[in-house]
UniProtKB/TrEMBL annotation:
<dbReference type="InterPro" id="IPR005901">
    <property type="entry name" value="GLPGLI"/>
</dbReference>
<protein>
    <submittedName>
        <fullName>GLPGLI family protein</fullName>
    </submittedName>
</protein>
<dbReference type="Pfam" id="PF09697">
    <property type="entry name" value="Porph_ging"/>
</dbReference>
Amino acid sequence: MKIVFALFLSLSTFQGFAQKGEPVILNVIYKFKHINDLNKPNKPFEQEMILRLGKTESRYNSWTDEVNMKTAVKNANNSGKSSSSSGGVFGFVPTVFVKSKGVQDFDLLQYPGLDRLVRVVVMGDSNYLIETSLPVIDWKVSEEKKEIGGYTCQKATGTYAGRTYIAWFAPKLPFRCGPWKLSGLPGLILEAKDLTNEVSFTFKELSRPEGIESTAPRKSRVIKVSEKAFDRAYTAFEKDPVSVYQSQLPIGADKAQLAYVDDKGVPFYAEEGKKMYESLKTDLKKRKSNPLELKIDAKGTGQVIK
């Protein structure tokens, strides 16, 4: 049915425009697929993602994680376990939760009218805000059309971060946003795939919000940092999450421990969690990394950014 409508960081809490948000007009769920290990092309990373659209801005995050978190909160009631996605307590001991899929707890906010892109990333016991300009994508719009979700969509081709994407946008949905960092077309992007078929955002469903929702980030207290500073913190967290988490806690806090969170959002503690985490690190060393964003050298060869 169609919907029609016209570390290493300065610890300063950010209280700017990104926290205000707008009422959500429309929700879009995409099936996201990414072959992040070229050694395993038949085992891509997959999640459902949700794009919440306001009148002039949007928020994009993992719908799969939202659903898993609701289940975890329900199961954690009266259990003594934390339902935190990145840091909390278990057995009265500070605990950092490390996910099998890496640091994926984030909000990505697009502000087309302000030319702003904002990431809010949960890492350990802190929420980091990274603000940059929206990517400028030189889209080439063609006359080719197809129907997606009951809407007539038009084809556009554009290159961003070393990948060329075929996008399909709906002119009757007047939003200049899309999934992830894709934006800048005269209509909502309902589908996008790169030419290598290594990355895709496939439309699943579109709906109005059931209650009051906002495009504001889910975390209200954040630390604003530069992209380079965050990358340094991210690298340190990947190398030793317990030490980084411990440094975020108050002086004199109990020694932190690690818990491993599997693909379904289920946490494992103590020795079992440590063994699973060590297995993950071994697997990561064997991977042929294929990140979402590539950079191009002088010869035009795609190289890994991080």
